[in-house]
Each structure stands twice: as structure tokens, then as C-alpha cells.
Amino acid sequence: MPFFVLAIAVQVALVIHVIKTGRDRLWIWVLLMAPLIGGLAYLLLELMPEWRRSAQAQTLRKKMVDITDPHRNLKQAQGQLRRNETTKNLITMAEECMNKGLFEEAIGFYTRALKGQYASDPLLLEGLARAQFGGQDYPACRQTLEDLIAANPDYQSKIGHVLYARSLFELGEREAALKEFTALSDYHATALVKYHLGELLSQSNRPTDALNQWRSVLEQENAWDPTGDSDQPWLDKAAARIKACQTH
């Protein structure tokens, strides 16, 4: 009896799915006249192809490819670039290099792309700055971003602003970094931004304000980071700083 009830429930669910998704109504008759075979046919011919196209399935396939052939995308980008050195292919190659932590190589490809009509392109300059920051060349990153704004004064980018503020932070330019992170906290209060602002406030002998910033990382909603990077490192760092403050 339980199996019979389950079979009926599945049959009804599939019929409802046919109606809701606007599929050929012939499937309703197939499912009603031959529940078991019809249900299997519907799964194989209608649902499985849809699942294969789903975002989750694509993500899973990408992860499997990354495991079995971790350099596949990099090799494909190299092949495309050898066949045709376009700006698009140079950017793709640079991004694949950054994904693998090959920042010096990425800098080279972005530099090659920054020619002619693209010599002051803001997206390319921002990409170059990301590669320079990843390679810990903070003076070059800062200079690239300043060149970007000089050539494109109306360009606005949260990613670029964060990069500039972090470069100042890494260069030890506390007052300038504090100014930039304070501005960022007004419109782009990510966990990263709030954590760094806390550090700068602490260095400026404002321990209470610093503690409030670190607490906000853990206790308040953080803005979404457009880079897609995880907030977890900054959550952990903020928790450690709060704990250190409480032990003193």
C-alpha cells in the first residue's frame, strides 16, 4: 500500500509539472496510461536534459573539470591567444593567470592589452591594478589607479576604490588610507572594508571606534563584495581582534 500511494503521488506530481511548465499535454496521457514507463520516459526525455543545463549542474561540471584538468581553461586561453592576439584574448589570458596566482604573467598580458585605443581603458587599467595588488606591488597598483582616474575622471568602481584604499594601507599611509576606508564605509561597507577601518582607527588611538567596527563585521549585515571573495577571513580576523581587546 505505501508503494502504491507513493507511485500515485509521483504520478500526480509529474502531471502537475507538465501543466505548470507548459509542456506538451500528450505527456499527461502517457503518465496516466503508463505510470511507471511514462514517468521514466518523462524523467529521461524532459527533466534530465533540463537538469544538465541548470546552473547548479554547470557549476558541478566545472568543479569536476577543475579537479580532473586544473589547467584546462589556462591551456584553452593560451591556444586562443596563439591563434589570434586580440584584446579580448589577452584579457582572458590575464584573468586565467590571476586565477592560478600567476600575477607577474597577468601583469604582462594586461600591459600588452593597454595599447592604441585601449591605452587608457578603465577596465583594463583596473585589471592591471588587480594583478599588481595580487603580486604585492602596491606602489605600482596605486599609480595605475591614479592614472586610471586621471584619464577617466568620471569612472566609478567599488573594486577599484577598495584596491586603492588597500594599497595605501599596505604602503603604511595611514591618514590617506583612513580617509578612503571611511568614504568606502558610507556606501560599500563590506566585511573587508569594516575590518580595515577598524585597524586604522586602532592605529589612530581610537580603540572604542575600532572595536565597534570589528563588532559590526560580526553583528551587522555586510555589503556584498563584487569580487566574490569570501567574507570568512575578515570575520575570523575581526573575532580575533575583539578577543584580544577583551583580554586586556
TrEMBL record:
Xref: InterPro entries: TPR-like_helical_dom_sf (IPR011990), UCP030959_TPR_rpt-cont (IPR014562)
Which residue ranges run through the membrane? 25-45
- Give UniProt keywords alphabetically: Membrane, Transmembrane, Transmembrane helix
Any idea what this protein is called? Cardiolipin synthase N-terminal domain-containing protein
| Organism the protein comes from | Simiduia aestuariiviva
